[in-house]
Amino acid sequence: MVSLKQILLKENVGGLDLVLRAFFGSLALSALALGVARNSKWKWVLALIGLTGLVSSITRHCTPYVLLGINTATPKESKGRDYIQGHETTRKDEMLQETMF
């Protein structure tokens, strides 16, 4: 069973996926700022692509990836970090907490 914390906070974006999200997000927001899209519908599409791309690349998290079981972040990139309750905990810390209780 997948917990809510894992769905919302686990790092699962990395490598080429991370770079492409940042690039296309920046490109979409730049096109929006320059007025490339004339139609209102396309402006909303560019805004959605841009914001989704940048937010997911900054947070290194994609909720649909969690639901589909995809993880493009290598263990070296994520360094075992999960951001839970506003502070950083490592998997080693979590294992210690589990054995103590």
Describe this protein's structure.
- With 101 residues, this protein is mostly helical.
- The protein has one domain (4-100).
- It is 65% helix and 8% strand.
- The chain has helices at 4-9, 15-34, 40-59, 63-68, 75-78, 91-100, and strands spanning 81-84, 87-90.
- A two-stranded antiparallel ribbon has the order 1-2.
- The longest helix has 20 residues, at 15-34.
- It is elongated and about 45 Å long.
- The mean pLDDT is 81.
Can you describe this structure in just a few lines?
With 101 residues, this protein is mainly alpha-helical. 65% of the residues lie in helices and 8% in strands. The protein is built from 6 helices and 2 strands.
* Coarse shape: elongated
Rg on CA atoms, Å: 17 Å
Strand share of the residues? 5-15%
Overall pLDDT, averaged? 81
Number of helices: 6
Q: Give the low-pLDDT segments.
A: none
Count of separate structural domains: 1
Total strands: the figure is: 2
Order of helices and strands: HHHHHEEH
Major beta sheet, strand line-up:
1-2
Give the helix/strand class: mainly alpha
Query: Helix amount, in percent?
Result: 55-70%
Q: Major sheet, described briefly? A: 2 strands, antiparallel
How far apart the termini lie comes to 21 Å
